[in-house]
Amino acid sequence: MQEKLTLKKIAGITIAVTGVFMITTIGRGHTFSFSLSLGYILMIASTLNWAVYSVLLKKLSVPVPSLVLTFYMSTTGFFLTLPFFIRNHGVDQLRTLSPEHWAHLLFLGIFVSAIAYWYWAKALEVMQATQVSVFLYFEPLATLIAAIILLNENFIASSLFGGLLIITGVMLVQGRFSFRKHG
């Protein structure tokens, strides 16, 4: 996987991460402090896990179409979690779901899981892992925008600044900004 982590990519990732912290901490009305709570530990573990997943998926370059690979990964995940589902009486809980809850479940299964993972694998076929992974930083920004529109959350100026940092960081990693002199 001949991908080089350049100074520009490191700067872009650092700027985008700073933007995420601006939105998730200061943007929520808190002062900026990083206490090592379980939530932060899980967030860091999840981020590292996703980074490893993306790098391995790119490195493996399996001679299988992305859709087939996504199906295999989802099927493996299903069978690995099935014993926990059965042990926790998941079937009984499924029987009590309303049609609205079934619609939510199908939306999550089809769009958030199946289609999103397939697009992620397709992106890794044509782009470097760091270029694809950096798009995850848009998630808090999209959540913030949705919360403002759908939940009438208050808009805080530091959130705008955090969003601009995320966009700037992603553009740096994507190579959209150049530090070279022109002329």
TrEMBL record:
Keywords: Membrane, Transmembrane, Transmembrane helix. Coiled coil: none annotated. It comes from the Bacteria. Residues 38-173 form the EamA domain. It is a multi-pass membrane protein. The chain crosses the membrane at residues 7-26, 32-52, 64-86, 101-120, 132-149, 155-173. GO terms for cellular component: membrane. It is found in: Endomembrane system. The keyword Membrane applies. The keyword Transmembrane helix applies. InterPro entries: AA-Vitamin_Transporters, EamA_dom, EmrE-like. Belongs to the EamA transporter family. This is EamA domain-containing protein. It comes from Halobacillus faecis. The lineage of its organism: Bacteria, Bacillati, Bacillota, Bacilli, Bacillales.
